[in-house]
Amino acid sequence: MSTASRFLYLAAVLAILAISACGGGGAPPGGSAAPGPLLVTVSPLVVSVQLGTQRQFTATLTGGDAAQQSAGVSWSVAGAGNGSVDSAGLYSAPLGMPANPNVVLTATSVADPSKSANANITLSTAPIYGALPVLFSVKTQNGWQALQAPVTAGIPLPKGLHSNVNQLRIQRQAGGANVPAQFEVTSRWADGSIRWVLCDFIADLSGAGGVGLYQLNNGGTGSATGTSLSVTNAAADITVSTGPLVFKLSKTGFRLFESVLIDRDNDTQVDDECLNTAALKGVVVSEGVNEFTMNQLAPTRIAVEQSGPIRATIVAEGVHRNTTLGQNKLAWVVRITAWNGQPHVRVSYSFKNLDGHGTPAGTPAAAAAQLASYQAADSVLLDLPLTPSAATVAAQMCGDSFPPSVASLGAGQFVDLYQSYTGTHDATDADNPQPAGYSVGTGDGSSDPLTDCWPTQSDSLITAALTGQVTQSLNHCKGWMQMAGSNLRVTASLRDFWQLYPKQLRMQGDGLMRIGIWPDAAPALQVFAGAMKSHDMMFSFERSSSTSVATADVYGSILNDPPVAVCAPKHNAASLVYGQIGVTDELLTSTTEFTGTGAPFAATYMAEAVAHLGDLLVDRNDGNGTATGHQYGMWNFGDGKTAVGATGWDNNEWDVAQTCFHWFAASGNLGLWRFGESSARHFRDVVVLHADIGLRFDYTEAGNPAVAGGKASQLGKTRYTPNNKQHDLGNYHLGENHLDVFRAACLAEHYLLTGDSLSLDVLKECFHYLRGTWKRFFDAANGGTDSTMICPTTWLSGGLMVASAYVMANGLNDPNAATTAAFVWNAVKVRQDTVSPRDPSGNGFSDSAGDFKAWPLGHLLQAMEYARWALDDASIDDNIERAMNWLLGTNAGVYLGNLPTPQYGKFSELPGGTTDYGAPNLMLGAGYVGVWRKSGTAAWRTRAENLLSAQDPNIASGTVGDAGIRTSTFAQFFRSGPLLLGTLRQ
User: Fold this and answer.
1) Rounded distance, CA 892 to CA 903, Å?
2) What is the pTM assigned to this prediction?
């Protein structure tokens, strides 16, 4: 049955149910309605189930009296050999196919056996996608092997599939053995069923290729019991025990760890200290001789964020302070994560500049000064003083051929690895223009002379020193170090050491291990207001007196190449959490899931995307500032090379990161997952909001503090001189508005897929800013202005994406999510419903000047398609259908492009007026898939295929080729893919 036919069939079934549920007549005048007759309904009503698997069914009793309802139902399966069902409605399909694959499952009222309902099951030998069990593989890009690897996996589920998290389990695919796991529902559909569930477990990746095969299934008891992981949250401190490791965190004088204990003396008691506690400082920021430490002020927040049987996470926030000077320098946020039975912990540390946070700026000049302010530091160092209790300690660094193992380090000796950079601004480099200077009160704060430097980086800039003897590295360094002595071996690793420079790893004979987050040998750090930079580290503590390269490599790999749960693309498509996406293979070559007429276009389109994947991913391997496609690459942890919208990855291209997640869902390609994941982490560093606009009011409040005082927003100043150029993502007009640059859906999906709570934190900040600016620019009833019809279309699409993403990621915990999303969606509908001279029926979406352009319409239709599933609002289909019918139907004579002669189906325009028929047209794929889903007619499928096929010449290399890859064209071309291919699905 085709997708459209299934929609029509389900609609018919629902209509029949609605009619059968209706009674005749109303309540007696003046009295309450009498209870109706007892009625039994079953869900799901019609479903396919694979042989040998289970499916949960639920029965609902309505009408009758309370006793009849509380008596419940009994379950039965008709016919021998057709499977079985337990008292809770869990159906187990037979292992072999019976003579008739159609099975009837019955729920019968216990109180009144004459009342029952049936579910119709079709048994299948093939996997049923979008059903339980959800098969997935756990794998890594580099295929490293380990017997125990912590996995945090977000698994999407389709609407109506399963509701009770306490009935889930993780199993090995081979043999079906249960694996201890921890479950958390992070998102639900409107009917209460699970949309996203976060699963934590310890995976076995010791097999060939480092791949583990698992499945999420029902029939379980939820999160594991009887594990060794425990958290004790006392008044003054928090203690975490994993079994082999116990560590303590202070609530009053936080300095990362107060104590780390293992069993060093092998007496079975975990009570032997690993750290020199008297020398602990945590992370220290230095300027000159002055140190700003973490423990001079109590944390503003320290809490147990996760306390499950498999994973525990403690979050803390505070500020670095020098008490003698009475000064603060840089705020910090830390998350420390531990796993059951494991000797290692992950530390995620971010520094950020909160200058101007919550402080209104009374004039444009004051707002400009806020945006231009920065804090300077000479170094940011994490020191871990160990207690090896030995005259000499063994040391090993990086684990490749350079630097070699160090037999021992004595007093006064050290080994140091330093990742540097060099470079100056080249005025002749067209891809690296130097923007105009900053002008207080009149400029936009986009630049200042302190950033006149563009770095290059290569292996030749990685140096090692052993007690003063310097050598050069010829290999990429993996970013770990290991020290051992007197039954204590500690391994420390830093994520993306090679890409995220400048960085330092240092070990000393006195037991000190240092991670130079910003080394003191580097030029001064300058952190502009509103900027943040995050760093992930891992520390393991084990009983051993010798180093082990193999062990260190595993810990480094867990951090740098984390295991990923890869669901079948067909399951992801069936879940609909990404919308109606296409399905292909890891290489983006398979067209078996597309229609015969659509397959040729899909093949051409994906081939062009594959041809440029190197431009997206190349810097993961090369990292050179001059690499082709550098704008989309991973240099310095995802920075775009240019800040000019016409020639680089500009503000509107941040949803390339989200699209990478969608391409990953459609293909299982881990390279795309890694790019999306790294870019999402980078996005939250450079597009961070530190003003609390939106936090200080709600929609019921009279007046609007966002209007008065010219409040600056402190969004995304990311200049760490001299290793970054401007990267002023979002710094528009002194913080007036940034709705068109947020594109924060990548943060929602990063959190939902990985459980990374920092992404959710930053998404919350974007959401709060959305609330404030939306009230400022749209809520005329509460002191703002009504800009619904005159704002840029990108405000609407950006606002709708942020609101919808926040509902998806945090709607369970924040009642403002749905309210704000409804407020934004209403503005979008008003824009569509308003009659204009060129749209007399009020069906299209004009821009702020009343014109119609396909590129902003493409953005908006993508946002609407995303909102349709994120908000679980099927009525949005009507708006999509109206817009597309107008666009390609009655609006055939309305000219949306700038061709001398309008041509049907060719109506796209790039920013700046450049004609391009390809990429923006393809962005309208969201509209095609939406209207085809809504209408269910073959005519729309044909219309979409005809228009898409006409784009073949426009997606060829000559149009979107190497020269064009550096423009917004490729971003739009690439971004449209998964939804576009959804129109071609069989």
Assistant:
1) 9
2) 0.85
